[in-house]
Amino acid sequence: MLPSGSAKVRVEAARAIARVMAGSNLDQALARADVRELAPQQVSMLRALAYGVLREHGLLSSLLSRLLDHPLQGEEELHALLLVGLYQLRSMRVASHAAVNETVEAVALLGKARMRALVNALLRRYLRERPALEALIAPSAARHSYPEWLADEIREDWPQAWEAVLNGGNAQGPLTLRVNRRKVARDVYLRRLDAASIAANSVPEAADAIILDHALPVEKIPDFADGAVSVQDVSAQLAADLLDLRPGQRVLDACAAPGGKTAHLLERCDDLDLTALDVDGERLQRVRETLQRLQLHARIVAGNAAEPRAWWDGKPYDRILLDAPCSGTGVIRRHPDIKWLRRFSDIPRMAATQLALLNALWPLLAPGGVLLYATCSILKAEGEDVIKAFLRAQPGAKHVAIAADWGEARPVGRRIAPGGAFDGFYYARLIKP
């Protein structure tokens, strides 16, 4: 009997998951999936399985360890396939018998036919003993599916809200649009969506943000190709307001790729002299494509923000946006692989890079200018700790508190927990007297 398409979906999802756990990021892992014989709906199912298992990987692995008499040494893809089966039984609207049968069929397609009986027995045992097995998942790191080191860091940094932060990272983030006010007003675009029977709402905290009730491919979003809207999370959209832009200002977007914030700054203020800088020349192509779709212009420069002598023309900037490279712990809900790819040792290394970038860019800021520091991290080590270290190193710099109806004020800067409309984020505003 030929394997079904459903079995193929499960096999390719398992292979993608195994690649991530071996060190690949999820986008790369999914790009390698063999989807040639799969329908679009099946490809969507493949992605849903991969994302879902990675969100719950710690919990699912803990359950599986209780079902197995001994670990599946050297069987990473089979291990991942079992997690796919457990995920379907726990978290998807799939009939139990179908989830078990399709997973067992997928074992043969994986080239492990001899293991079919074992997989069948394990999944059926889970169904029989589910309440007792679930009750054994007591430690928070396993229950919330975070590596222990990361759960500990979040618990320490968010003592009053750590569990909500963990849960927020495990939820699926909504599809958020940024309305291009050069082309259309937000209320007008909301009416366009309503006319197209697309349910959506504005976000009061961000002047250009709209959240769709249900995600859509961009080709089905009205006027997307014409530049009326872009996809961008609410938290990232806050940067434009915090920079307080004025026409004619020289602006540097110091780590610009893929270009969402660059475009937003240009949409919000006419006649900016804006430089979009990034160290990755290939990713800068995405900036070019974004600006071309939106019919916007910026000076695009490939260069290392930490080494301005190689690219700076010597003229100071009125505004600098430093969306610094970081752990990405604030966007885990959109990139669940981050939980399993990051290591504790990454954090001090990234914090050192962030501080070096701040110190390198500060001399480029004009007197009276604003430098906005941003990270999509929820860890103090990459947020307020970096800004405190910078202020010690640059006694002439002035931190200006951010008054807002979003997030939480910190001794320096303002942070946002992941959840609802918002990805996890940190902002700090610095002024040169």
What topology emerges from the helices and strands here?
Blueprint: H1 5-21, H2 26-31, H3 40-55, H4 57-67, H5 76-91, H6 96-109, H7 116-135, H8 140-143, H9 148-157, H10 162-170, E1 176-179, H11 186-195, E2 200-202, E3 209-212, E4 229-231, H12 234-243, E5 250-253, H13 260-268, E6 273-278, H14 281-294, E7 299-302, E8 317-323, H15 337-341, H16 346-361, E9 365-375, H17 384-393, E10 398-400, E11 408-409, E12 414-416, E13 425-431
Parallel strand pairs: 5-6, 5-8, 6-7, 8-9
Antiparallel strand pairs: 1-3, 1-4, 2-3, 9-13, 10-13, 11-12, 12-13
Structural summary, described in words:
The protein is of the alpha/beta class. The protein has three domains: 5-138, Orthogonal Bundle (N-utilizing Substance Protein B Homolog, Chain A); 176-231, Alpha-Beta Plaits (2-Layer Sandwich), CATH 3.30.70; 235-431, 3-Layer(aba) Sandwich (Rossmann fold). The chain contains 17 helices and 13 strands. Strands 5, 6, 7, 8, 9, 10, 11, 12 and 13 form a nine-stranded mixed beta sheet that branches. It has a four-stranded antiparallel beta sheet with strand order 2-3-1-4, with helices on one face. Helix 16 (346-361) packs across helix 17. It is globular, with a radius of gyration of 24 Å. The termini are far apart.
Number of continuous helical runs: 17
CATH architecture of the largest domain: 3-Layer(aba) Sandwich
Number of strands: 13
Q: What's the alpha carbon Rg, rounded to whole Å?
A: 24 Å
Oligomer: single chain
Low-confidence stretches: none
**What helical percentage do the residues reach?**
40-55%
CATH class of the largest domain: Alpha Beta
- β-strand percent reads 5-15%
Shape type:
globular
Largest sheet: 9 strands, mixed
Question: How far is the first residue's CA from the last residue's CA?
Answer: 75 Å
Give the SSE string.
HHHHHHHHHHEHEEEHEHEHEEHHEHEEEE
The third-level CATH topology of the largest domain is: Rossmann fold
**Average residue pLDDT:** 95
